[in-house]
Amino acid sequence: MAMRIDVVAGYLNASRKNSVSGKIELADGQVVWLELSGNLRGKFSGRNFSFNVNHPDGAEQTSAGETAGNSDNLSASHSQEEVEPLLELRQIGTIGDVDFRKAKSPLVPIEELMTRIKLGETPPFEVVDLLYLEWYGQSGRVVAEIINVEIQWIDQINETQSSPVADPLFVEDTDEADSDGSDSSGEDELENDGEWPLSSTQTVDPYQLFPTDLDDQIRQSLKQNDASMQPKDGAVAGANSLDFEEHETNQPRDWSEVIPGIDPETKALYESWDEIYSGQYDQPIEGLFCGEYEIPPLDSVQTDEQADIIVKIIVARLAPLNVAIDLCEHMTPLTALKMIVEEILPIARVHPNLAATEIIRHYSTFEFCEACEKEFDAEYDKYHE
Questions:
Q1: Which of these, 24, 138, 217, 276, could form a disulfide with 351 (CB 3.0-4.6 Å)?
Q2: Exposed, middle or buried: residue 62 (CB in 10 Å: 0-12, 13-18, 19+)?
Q3: Total domains in the fold of the chain
Q4: What is the per-residue pLDDT for 357?
Q5: What is the mean pLDDT of residues 289-310?
Q6: In this predicted structure, what is the pLDDT of residue 165?
């Protein structure tokens, strides 16, 4: 069953082969970033575009009840919770179907629509433009049927920008210009070794999760640790003969010593993060994500069409583990499948509870791609000429 979301604006960037990135805004104001593998098809292939929902006369959007030429229609019986679910801030996985269609949209409120259907009446509909957006990520299959949508094609992209378009769909607060007319956002304001200074109105800990004297506690703990790590007399002379690997320890830090007086709930949270980040309890990915699905033998996969389906299944099953596979531009579905099965999956490991954090573990084909290595070497040589 698909998770259905109500999207009001966004953009998608498919200019890079085997990758679809972008950002969408839900009706409740939540903004979600998309970092998906795969390619768009048809008129969207290799394109960049933004979209925005037009609400005629300020009316609220009503999800399409019947999509022309599409049997997977949005049922009017979905509750508000199903229409506007909570998604992870960063969505990984694989892109599904993205298409521009015609749809029938009801002209009456949802309550009246349901009443007329129960009475056997035919409610009034209008035919509207619909953008169908689908992907497979941490929440499984996600679908958005976006009606009354206006699409703007983006033909030129400034690759130095973090997003393909300086679109007005997601306006963020910016500082006023300086009184002398100069822009206060320039690099000349960088301080503290390249870090941006906090504004006077910016709150570091708005939910009061940390003690007010946390900085002093950490500073004191660091001083104690620094003193305990000073070499004893004669230790430096024999340092070169030490086997440092033999003296390494995997013992987790004691948060009661790092932050004296820390509450038990926060301490347990930090300890669980330490366990996840340490890698000590990581497990092979192959045993975690396969489940009922068994990857077919590579010699039985003969076409790109067959390989593409298998790659999508693998990437989609990894997403709920917070694991992403990034495909470089040189990959075909067959070469991608071979590299994933032979190079990535045998070495990939992940903590079973990584999904409880916001950390995404990326595995990339460019690490094993000869073409990527040659391009990197060529750029390196050019830079150092």
A1: 276
A2: middle
A3: 2
A4: 81
A5: 87
A6: 38
